[in-house]
## 1
Amino acid sequence: AAKQDGKNLLRRYQPEMEAQAQALQNAYDLLEQALSQQWLSLHYQPILCINGAEAGRITGVEALLRIRHPEQGVLAAQSFISALDAPHLARPVGRWVLQQAMGQAQYWNAQGLNLGMMVNISAVHFLSPDWLDDLNEALTAHPGLQPAQVKIEITESGALRDLDVAARVMMQSTHAGVRIALDDFGQGETTLRYLQRLPAHTIKIDQSFVRDMIDDPHDYAIVVGLLDMATLLGLVTVAEGVEGEGAMQLLASLGCTHVQGYGIARPMPAEALPGWVAQWSPPSLPKPVMRVMPN
Ligand code: C2E
Ligand code: MG
Ligand code: MG
Ligand code: MG
């Protein structure tokens, strides 16, 4: 009977596994083709400061990868996201994204539009021996850019893959002048314990907690906990996936420093960004309720 069960299980799961393997292969092929055909492109999503001296202002953007497919139009990351960590693709994609995003920020600087530029880098690339060379090469190629304008986003789960190497590379990257953000923060189970070992400048609170924080007491508790901890540690905090006015007001009163989400703006092509920033009018925001260190 056990053997029979095993067979049934296999029969049940094999098509699913084959479909998954096929989907992964398709993502690899698509991203590889996009690289070689120069179909890659970056969209930029504004980041709004909601606490501190710059509250109300758009202080930066996150660069998000898109494929401009000749037949299928603009493809968002979900159609190739699984390929971004492939050993043979992480580095070439990362190098392209770094060069493109820094070139864009440098161009905007020259137009008088100074924005922080947040760039997503696969942990596969970030933790590799090539990373610092690639970073320094890109910085050297863009003298019209302050390295501190650039913030490298690495996922919390990626950093936890090899904590010691991650901590060292974060420190070395910081010495090169850029800043580090821990992306999708809060998803890792060991979050609080390990944060003190990772020299991050910023945490980006994962949108899965932010989206429902108004209705779900558990998500709300997690967001409050992460914000209090990060604030006491002096970290910049970006809440991701802010879709409504209510969430933004609440986050401001909780001391969160920045928000990003469809409620402010969707990611947009580079050409659209300066006009969008020019029409932005600062919202009125509540003062944060302060929590203090015991003395
Ligand atoms: P991420 O870095 O956490 O980026 C945020 C994602 O949330 C983006 O999806 C963005 O479009 C989406 N988003 C922003 N605001 C909202 C909102 O209010 N509601 C909802 N539902 N979604 C929102 P996108 O562009 O599809 O990217 C997905 C993921 O793909 C990124 O998550 C990142 O992990 C990865 N990715 C994107 N670009 C790159 C890249 O250049 N390199 C690497 N390695 N990964 C990238
Ligand atoms: Mg990101
Ligand atoms: Mg994220
Ligand atoms: Mg994400």
## 2
Amino acid sequence: TEINLEQHFQNKIDNEIRIEPKDWMPEAYRKTLIRQISQHAHSEIVGMLPEANWITRAPSLKRKKILLAKVQDEGGHGLYLYCAAETLGVTRDETLRDLHSGKAKYSSIFNYPTLTWADMGAVGWLVDGAAILNQVPLCRASYGPYARAMVRICKEESFHQRQGYELMMKLAQGSPEQKEMAQDAFNRWWWPTLMMFGPRDAESGNTEASMNWRIKRFSNDELRQRFVDMTVPQAEYLGLTIPDPELKFNEETGHYEFGEIDWEEFWNVVKGNGMCNKERIDVRRTAFDEGAWVRDAATAYHEKRKQKEQQ
Ligand code: FAQ
């Protein structure tokens, strides 16, 4: 019966036994995974755009190769994640339709513009740094295909974060103009990066269920705090100033206290009204439409092979 199935399912979760695609699972678990995994996939694919903007303008061949490799990795991450979502019974077409119609979200961070070359450093250092903190615990998520995809993704993200920090270091140790560029990029990316972790715990409607199901292992605020504690010393090492006058170290708790995030800005971006939301979705829609012939050709080829095999 349903109750026994549900109990058996929760027992597996509580005993750290992975749930696999063909196992019974409650509909709400399936739904929340489809939501999170597909939104995560969309974030990877849309996340390629702000950086792709700089590939043709990278200042050296070495930097161009690094950036190309990073953006290509992100395409790969999106594809593993779409596949993981497909194991839950949604098609690629459905998830993409939801992205293009604005029904499905993707990370707020990718709706900010990349204005200078220093943004490539800030994105790698901060955005990928935040992504890793959030994703390492997801390697232990209860759903097998998601957890396994995360292992490789995290290894690649770690390279992404390091190249960003190294780029920032070069600028921070460069000419006064280069240092100023690094500080300017830091000023613009710091607060949006803190928003990546999602709303405050009190406003996070999905956390409780996701933690009971061991999809999430830490709350949004816990991970955000961990990010601040990790990043402040890295900024100090670069000689950059954290754009938060309220930031201070609390000796008693051993944590940094920080100012209030502009939640109105966060929700505004999530609702589709950020600086680049429209541009990002337009680019994705156009790419999908212009790629239709590739999908048609692949389908026709598959059909032809199937017919040959049957002969
Ligand atoms: N942006 O109840 P919660 C990357 C939505 S890293 C937009 O707390 P949950 C790598 C949330 O969906 C970025 N929407 O939700 C890369 C929910 O709405 P819904 C991607 C946000 O799921 C780096 C509502 O607010 N990483 O791509 C955001 O428990 C560089 C209430 O929130 C992942 O997706 C936001 N920032 O916690 C690529 C990681 N925050 O869905 C290229 C996996 C919240 O009910 C370049 N995802 N919302 O309509 C997660 O860990 C979780 O989904 C959270 C949100 C933590 C993002």
## 3
Amino acid sequence: MWLSGGRMASVGRQSFGSCFRVLGRRGCNTAAVMPEAAGFEGVSDRSDLQDFSVCSSDSFWAAVARQRLSWIRPFHTVQDCDLSQGRIRWFEGGKLNVSVNCLDRHVHTCPERVAVIWERDEPKSEVKLSYRQLLEMTCRLGNLLRRRGVKKGDCVTIYMPPCPLAVASMLACARIGAAHNVVFAGFSADALAERIRDAQSSTVITVNQGVRGGKVIELKKTVDAAIQSCPTVQQVFVAMRTENPVVMTAKDVAMEEVRGHISNQNLLTVLTCEDTVCEPAGMDSEDTLFLLYTSGSTGKPKGLVHTQAGYLLYAALTHRYVFSYHDGDVFSCVADIGWITGHSYSVYGPLANGGTTVLFESTPIYPDPGRYWEMVQRLKINQFYGAPTAIRLLLKYGDKWVHKYDRSTLKTLGSVGEPINTEAWEWYHRVVGQGRCPVVDTWWQTETGGICIAPRPADPDAEIVPGMAMRPFFGIKPVLMDTEVYGSSCVSLCIAQPWPGMARTIHNDPQRFTETYCQPYPGYFFTGDGAYRSKEGYYQITGRLDDVINVSGHRIGTAEIEDVLNQCSAVAESAQLFGFSQFAQRLPKTRSGKIMRRVLRKVVDSELEGLGDLSTLDDPEVVQEIIQGHHDLL
Ligand code: 6R9
């Protein structure tokens, strides 16, 4: 691994060589692109539709919201937003229930369709649940929560690995009107405690132990340690993921009935004493659906607030149109449910669309580097959505792990989380997708709720340029602003008008929301990322703005330089910094696989006091290694 700050000649777009057309149909009618758009006047092709969605955003979103969601009471106002004030409200007057939209309406039409496939850590032991079964599990949990005093407006913290019970817990909260706060089940007790305290949760849901990559993780013990410093917590529901008993305290409530002969290891036999019918709460469009914490570069993590209707609509629409999801497809997003990617594309998007979604509990290399592709073959996966960090890792293990398995069911490959370098993109496209599956590089953030910029391969005339051909999604109007970062000018990506999926505020700190996202360019949403736009109107994301470097007066994003470095076979991954060159064994990464460059920069600048929020760091020891390495270098 190479941390470099040397001079770089000619890096940039010319390195993105190949380009292909997915479909060559020009001018096909709009209804084929998007049936919801059939009635829009003056819209005859995909480009008209994009313009319409931005220029007539009220008409666009009203039509889509009416067709895609099932409402208890219709909305009277499509949007009431003023970005400069940080005011974002969609579909006011409307009432709905998110769990009804994700479950009941599909149970009415296709109760036995598979809703979730739980790809357990133990290979080849998947468990399938139909929409009817998932609704029953959700109702039982909803009744339990209600009976134990959880009310509309409360916030329940969920500390669980991806599994049907975690999804049912999220949906049970939605059913009774509580908000959920899913904390990635790999976070430390301190990180968990900080998030429980900020969310003021009185209820936590967890499992006795997690299992990941063949290793047992003591989740319940971590909760025990965390709640020592969380006075609000009154009860902890504990389900059994393994058969090992854990010490239960006065606050703990076992979720299983005690039945000696039933193995609870599959987490499916819980709460058989609860009723399978649970009256859904009627929620206002702008009631909170969930909080999700994301790390701030300084200070404490931010609890971003997403609300009911707008979020669900946006997750559903992007899931359908970015991935070309069709009824009957098996969709697999391998992100953990503790990240926004898991929320929007393992849970809410696919379920709102009546889809079949895979919940992946394991790692890309357990029991071997063929895990993903063996799973694709066994579960007949049609869309696979993963992170560049995993693709880069698997690429180094060689093609044989991919070739071993049949991937003919795959139709679309997705990437998210970081810029995907050309080498990884090409490998993903050529080796994994056999050159026939479009790769959709999707740009978005916890704050945006769903994908904002991505190719849409099903569109007529769709073109995908590796690492770059990214177009705004319907209703998204990106703008590039000149900005100054660390004394050099950069182009910063903003979004010019609100869209339904965006976060509404920061829990407990609306001021910070406005300052961070709305004030840098009043009237615009500030993303904090840099971008280029080509003459065709395609966007390329260059990385976090505070990671931009200045080489001989050229502004160059970290993505471009890392892209070139990664093509050297000795370099597994790279992170580019100002005027700094060093080899390191490992890079500091978040638990979702993103390189934490700001930490590297602080080390280089010898600002060890101001490393910022490190709670999302995967292995804090790496920071010590790098500090030591840098020290030795000086
Ligand atoms: C969905 C998610 C958001 C940040 C974002 C950007 C980076 C995400 C990307 C990408 C380049 C892509 N990012 N997708 N950069 N190309 N396709 O990852 O949310 O965890 O909040 O991170 O991730 O820097 O600002 P989140």
